[in-house]
Design goal:
The complex is a heterodimer of chains A (about 325) and B (about 230). In chain A, a hairpin with a 4-residue loop joins strand 6 and strand 7 (about 90). Chain A folds into two domains: about 1-155, no CATH class; about 185-290, Cyclophilin-like (Cyclophilin, Beta Barrel). In chain A, about 15% of the residues lie in helices and about 25% in strands. Chain A has helices spanning about 35-45, 270-275, 290-319; strands at about 1-5, 15, 55, 60-65, 70-75, 80-85, 90, 100, 105, 115-120, 125, 155, 185-190, 205, 215-220, 235, 240, 250, 260, 265, 285, 285-290. Chain A has about 325 residues and is α+β, with helices and mostly antiparallel strands. Chain A starts with a strand and ends with a helix. In chain A, helix 1 packs parallel to helix 3 (about 290-319). In chain A, the strands form four sheets. Chain A has an eight-stranded mixed sheet. Chain B is of the alpha+beta class and about 230 residues long. In chain B, about 45% of the residues are buried. The chains are: A alpha+beta (about 325), B alpha+beta (about 230). The interface between A and B is large, with 43 and 47 residues.
Chain lengths: ~325, ~230
Amino acid sequence: MSLHVLAPGLLTTVQDRGREGWRHLGVARAGALDPFAAALANRLVGNPEDAAVLEITLLGPTLQWAQPLRIALCGAPWPMRFEAASGADCTLPTGRPLALPAGTLRLGAAREGARAWLAVAGGLDVPVVLGSRSTDLRGGFGGLDGRPLRRGDVLGLLAPPDIACTAPRHPAWWVDPLAGAPRTAPLRYVPTSHPAAARLAGQDWRVQASSDRQGLRLAGAALPGASGSAISEAVAPGTIQLPPDGQPIVLLADAQTVGGYPRLGHVIAADLPRLAQLRPGDALRLSPCDAATARALACAARVRMARIGLAVASRLASA
Amino acid sequence: MNATEADLQPLADDAWLLRFGDAIAPATLARVHALCARVRAASPPWLRDLVPAYASVGVFFDPAVADAEAVRDWLRQQCAALDEDSVAATPTRTVEIPVAYGGEFGPDLEAAAQALGIPADALAARHAAGDYTVAMIGFAPGFPYLAGLDPALALPRLATPRTRVPAGSVAIGGAQTGIYPRESPGGWRLLGRTPLRLFDPQRTPPALLAPGDRVRFRAIGADEFARLAARES
C-alpha cells in the first residue's frame, strides 16, 4: 500500500510535530507549521496525533494509489478532485474523514491561506530521525531524504487500513478550527524591551516573496535601531527579529536555533496557526499582548483543540 | 552581574531566556554551561530543550506539564544555587580534532597569514595550539562556535561569501573559529579541514561536539587525512 507522487506541488513535505531535545546541537524543531491542524487531520483518520502527514503549500500535489484508503485534509480551504480508477470524478470536501477507492487525488491551488495538512490512515512510513519523521529542509535530513516531494516518489504507509470502498464516502459533519478566527485580526505579540519593539504595532506590514518555512519576511517602513549588534542567543518559532535593513523577520518552524539579530518579541502561540496561512503579498498588523495573557490564550487553544479532538473521536466511534 | 541577578524574559509562550549579562567572557560562558549541566542533571519533567549561547540559555518547557511561572521560579533557584565552586566543578570533555592545514584543505591560509603579517605555517601552528571551548552550536546543525581564538588571529569575514564551503572546513570569522559540518555557503576564512564528520543525523548524539566541550586541534598531513576520511565514510 503506497502513494505514488504524480506531481509534487509547490512545496510538499513530510512533517509531524517536529523534533525536541536536540536544539543545543543546532537541530531545528521543524514539524508542521500548524501542529494543531496536522494533529486534527490525523484524528480524523484515526491516527495518533503525531503521525507523519504531508504539508502542502499554495499548490498541492497529485497522488495516486491502488487500494482503498482513508484521508483527511485540514488547514486552509483547498480544492480537491478525485478520479476513481473506475473513471468516476468528483470534488472532495476538507475537514472530514474521506474513504476513497483506488484512484488519483489532485490538490489544486489554495484559494485563500497558504498551507494544509493531509493525513492518511496508517501514517506515512518514513524513517524516524532524531525522534521525528519531520523533514528538516535546511539540515537535509528527515522526511523523504530531507527534501520536498518529487515526481515519481513513492510513500509507504505504516499501518495500511483494511477498508472496503468502491466510491468516495464521507460524513455530513466537518471541523474547521480556524472558523471564527478573523483572518484580518492583528497578530498578537509579546514585545521585548528593545526600543523598536513597540513600533511593530504602529503600521501595516506585507509578507515578502522571500518568506519560507524558516521565517516570514515582512516589508514596511524600516524600524530604527537595527544596527545595534546583539550577541547570539536562542530563538524560537514565533521570534521576531530585526535585521540591519529594519524589515522584521518572524521565525517559523524551520527557524535556526540561535540568532544574532536584535529580538523584538514573539508572536503568541495561539496565533502561530494564522502565521502558517500568510502568503506572499498578504497584509498584516501586529498588536502587543502581555506574556500572561499570551499563555492563557495558548492554554485555551490547547483545551479547544482537545475538545475538538474528543468530539471527532466520539463521532468516529459512533459512525 | 552575578548569577543570582540573571535576567529571565519570555522567549516564547513555552520558553524562557535566561541572560547572564550581555558580554562575551569566559567566566560568563562557564556559568552558562554550569547552569545547563545543573538543569540536565535535575532533568525536570517539563524540560524540552536547553539552548546555551555565549551569555544566555534558552529553556524550552512543555506548558502542559508545568506553568511558566513555576518553571521561572525553579530556574531562579538554580541560578541562585550556582556558586563559584559549582561552576568550577562542572565536568568538561576534551575532544581532539585532526586538521589538515593549508593547500587544498585551507585555501585561505596563505592570504590570511599575509594579512596578519606572519608565515602560513606559523598561523596554522598558532591556530592549532589554541585551547578552545564550544561556546554554542548554531547556524547549521552541528556547527560549533569556538571561543578562545588568539585575538591576534582575528580576521574579518570575506567580502563575498563562498557559495560552497566543503564539509569539515576549519575557519576563522572575526574573533571566532568554527568548523562547517556540511557543505554550505559561508564567509569565514578557510584555514584547513578535518576528516571527521561533525554532524550525522543517524548517530546518537548526532553532533561530534556539544556546548561546553573543550577542543584541541591536531595538525595532520594529507596521508592521515585520507586515512581518517576513509574510516569516517
